[in-house]
Amino acid sequence: MAYRPKLTSASRPLTTEVEALNERGEALPTPIAGEHPLTLYVDKREIVTLMTLGQAPEALAIGYLRNQRLVRSIEEIAEVQVDWETDSVAIVTRKAIKGLTEKMKKRTVTTGCGQGTVFGDLMEEIESLRLRDDVRLTEDTLYGLLEAVRHRETIYKSAGAVHGCALADRAEILYFVEDVGRHNAVDAIAGQMWLDRVDGSDKIFYTTGRLTSEMVIKAAQMRIPFLVSRSGLTQMGYEIASKVGITMIGRAVNKHYLLFTGRHRFVRQIMPTMLA
Amino acid sequence: MAYRPKLTSASRPLTTEVEALNERGEALPTPIAGEHPLTLYVDKREIVTLMTLGQAPEALAIGYLRNQRLVRSIEEIAEVQVDWETDSVAIVTRKAIKGLTEKMKKRTVTTGCGQGTVFGDLMEEIESLRLRDDVRLTEDTLYGLLEAVRHRETIYKSAGAVHGCALADRAEILYFVEDVGRHNAVDAIAGQMWLDRVDGSDKIFYTTGRLTSEMVIKAAQMRIPFLVSRSGLTQMGYEIASKVGITMIGRAVNKHYLLFTGRHRFVRQIMPTMLA
Counting Cβ atoms within 10 Å, is residue A27 exposed (0-12), middle (13-18) or buried (19+)? Predict the structure, then answer.
């Protein structure tokens, strides 16, 4: 059996209810999304405090370390212990991380908020990435995935204020994570993929959030060739997507979409009329 | 005349156009929002790289330093020079910032992405904040402001993928800033308020984004008693808003809204039928 770190399983209640007055003066019980600080400690050293919905805190912690390049494989992690009494997660490595101080310093100056991205080094890494070119996404599969997303029960539907991310194998959703920070949702999926030894190279990454530089970088780092969003994109998201040749689709809702980059992996529906 | 630092005025073109294929196979010219790295240097020391739309980079840099508590007043800043050839902004202080290294270190461990918040110390500061209690927001004024926001020409309308923030004096919008990161939009407004010596204590802060802990903290730090959002809120946003007693209104669109906290400052419309 594949190696697995020792983990807690400590998700939080995801919504809570408060009272609000609407424009008719009615007091309405209103569900709101959870938001909790979670401070990461690696081998007792404080790394960062994330504000999270708390749906998948162990996977989030692992994925954060993965996407920040603080650990290189799941085998480096011995334990991940979330404790909501102290709002903390203690990660124990099997062998102390080399150069943690140096890595932390680099992170400092490059973490922003547009923010939340680790830059510089990452761009170099991105340049050398190659995504698989022998995989295809058909329009039918895309529509099937959008349909699956639409039918999903979500925190967003009940309380709003969260972003959702999914990893899909064709139209089948493997993971669906929501969080108050969209970077957290991506990181949690990255962590879960490591835990389950899921290879991204033929998968689809779906997000309700915008396709910014960071989103494209993270998808590419996970070797995922297909990136689909309900929302729009930014200039740098577009430039990086063009550079790594990822197949990027925006404004994907119902039977509408905009295909921006990596067109060679996308197969449009052949219309029945064209066959006649 | 009030003191003003020496400033560049270097906004970027805010949208650019790329080609996308839609579901009918048509190639559409599609406007997308700019996103540019902007690295802040304070007295030649690298502080952070922000990903920004670039609408108000000087105000953003000043507001970032203000909201991170790295400078305490606009008088501490001598120059703010944005240079897009190097994607950088050089800030020169009039007197070196005391304990910058210490402050930077604190920032490291507490900056997350949910992220983008500075925590810990801030919460203590928040506890001691008092917002004005002798100011009122009427429903008419709220509707007037929402109307003003709706008629505004925005990047969001043309390209999406940005958040907008506004500072309003009753229904009149004083500033309206959009950015790829909503934290940047708030920071840019904080910077502009300092530059123009605008007091927040009777103003309304409007945002298209969600009311998370950080949003509430920043509004309260600027002493703004009214916080209005088109979107929803999170549990911690609610808890902090309750604690500081800010008047917080969510889901504010057209003639609908939900009043969550600080009800004593809000005056509902008296319906004509009630006067009859």
Answer: exposed
Interface check B119 vs A, CB under 8 A: yes
Task: Give the residue numbers spanning the domain of B91.
Answer: 6-121
Whether B179 has its CB under 8 Å from any CB of chain A: the answer is: yes
CB contact under 8 A, B235 and A119: no
Determine which of B30, B40, B51, B142 to mutate to test the interface with A (most A C-beta atoms within 10 Å): B51
One-letter amino acid identity for A27?
Answer: A
Q: Which of B121, B151, B169 is the last residue of a domain?
A: B121
B6-20: per-residue pLDDT in tens? 999 999 988 999 999
As a dihedral over the C-alpha atoms of residue A221, residue A223, residue A224, residue A229, rounded to 10 degrees, the angle is 20
Question: What whole-number distance in Å separates Cα of residue A62 and Cα of residue B68?
Answer: 28
Residues B3-57 pLDDT 10s: 999 999 999 988 999 999 999 999 999 999 999 989 999 999 988 888 899 999 9
A/B interface, count of CB pairs below 8 Å: 213
Instruction: Give the pLDDT confidence of A192-206 residue by residue, as tens digits.
Output: 999 999 999 999 999
Same domain, A149 and A233: yes
The residues with which A49 forms a beta bridge, in sequence order, are A39
- Our count of domains for chain B comes to 2
Cα–Cα distance for residue pair A185/A207, rounded to 1 Å: 9
- Domain match, B100 and B146 both: no
Residue A87 shares a structural domain with residue A198: no
Residue B249 lies in a domain: yes
- Is the same domain home to A213 and A258? yes
Partner-chain contact A22 B107, CB within 8 Å: no
Contact call for B258 and A28, based on CB within 8 A: yes
